[in-house]
Structures are given as C-alpha cells and as structure tokens.
Amino acid sequence: MIPLLEKMIQTICSEIFESDIYLSLVNFELREEILLLTFDLEYEDNHKIIQKWQVACEEFKEHRLEVNYFYSDDFKVLNEHPYLWDCTKDFSSLYFQGTVEDINKVIGDLYIKHSEVTKGLIPFDTYINSEGIGWILNANFGLFAEAPEDLIHEYAKVLNGYGLKTSVIPSKRKRKDKKYKVFLFGDSYVVAKKFEAVRLV
User: Fold this and answer.
1) Residue range of the domain that includes 145
2) So what's the pLDDT on residue 2?
3) How many domains does the chain have?
4) What pTM was computed for the model?
5) I need a surface site. Which of 19, 184, 186, 191 has the fewest CB within 10 A?
C-alpha cells in the first residue's frame, strides 16, 4: 500500500498539465501534535490554482517552514537524511587528550569534514562541546563532542591526524527511532512519524 503523501507526490508528478506548474505552501496550522500544511498547485504563467492539498504531519519532531514556491521534483519523503539524525541515530561521546600547535588549522579541517558528512545541512557547532571548539581544544583534554556515531568517528580521525589521543564511548542519549521520516519541499522540511495527504480541490 502506498502511503498517502507518496501517493500525492505520484499523482502530481504523473499528470500532464497545459503549461509549467509550481507548488507553494500557503498555510500551516498546529493542532496538538499534528502540523497541518496546505499547498496550492498553480500554473506558473497565470497563477491559476489547479489543485489544493493538505498534509497532516503527525507526531512531528521538528520543522523549518518557508512560504515560497517550489517544483514537484523538490517534493520528497525520505527515511535517511541528516535532518533525521537526532531521531534515528545512536549517539556517542568523543573525548580527547593532547595539544596542537595550530588550533585554527584543526578547526578548519574539522569544519570541512563536518560539512562533507552533513552535506552542509547541520551547523558546525551543533554537536560540539557547548563551551566552544576553541575553548575545548585549548583545554587540551575533555569531552569534544556528542554526536551520531558516524560523525563522531570522522571527528576522531581528524583529531588523530594531529596527534591527539581520542576515545569514543556510547552516549546515554539514546535517539534511535526508525519510525521518523523527513518530508522535504523546497527549502522547507518537517520531521514526523506519519504524513497523511488529502486533496481539497
């Protein structure tokens, strides 16, 4: 059985329209644990509304909503994505010990690796010690970061490359819940356990 949101996406992508179309988020409303999103499907040349859809995001965890235009190719529901890490990945803690001569170079290499692994979608300081990366590296030892395991091991490789000793231990913050998915549309996203779509017009 095809989930209703995926069926909505298939319906829009499979139809033949007279000219180019786009989608827009025109309204959002919060009802208890359900986030309701309303989308218009319009012709690009005259802005005539062809279809109107409502998507219910049940048990949503987080979201970023931008009221703008986007195309049907930007409509996706994924089970694997950096936006899901806080819900679906096990976390580990990274401790280090040692000194480095050029802290800025270490930070630069860590930033490059972080951007590569997260595809530039998660801010660099999200998982690093809240005291700040410069502070913790100058301290010469301590908790460097608490993050998803894959990212922690990449941080450790960078630190090891500068001669720092590292140790990784499982975090007490258990996050793994594979029921969450991410709904992507344009520059917006919603993380939730269930998405239901209904056509209004």
Assistant:
1) 90-170
2) 44
3) 2
4) 0.87
5) 19
Long-range contacts of 119-125 (CB under 8 A, 24+ apart): 119/82, 121/82, 121/83, 122/82, 122/85
Residue 85 lies in a domain: no
162 shares a domain with 125: yes
The reply to whether 24 and 48 lie within a common domain is yes
Q: Average pLDDT of 49-77?
A: 89
Bridge partners of 164, per DSSP, are: none
pLDDT of the residue at 1: 35
62 beta partners: 191
Distance (Å, whole) CA 162 – CA 104? 12
Count of CB atoms situated within 10 Å of the CB of 61:
16
As a whole number of angstroms, the distance between CA 135 and CA 86 comes to 25
> Is residue 126 a part of any domain in this protein?
yes
Specify the residue for token string 């899901």.
84
Q: Is 149 left (phi over 0), alpha (psi -120 to 50) or beta?
A: alpha
- Report helix, strand or coil for 157: helix
The β-bridge partners of 196 are: 56
Does a structural domain hold residue 135? yes
Residue 167: per-residue pLDDT: 98
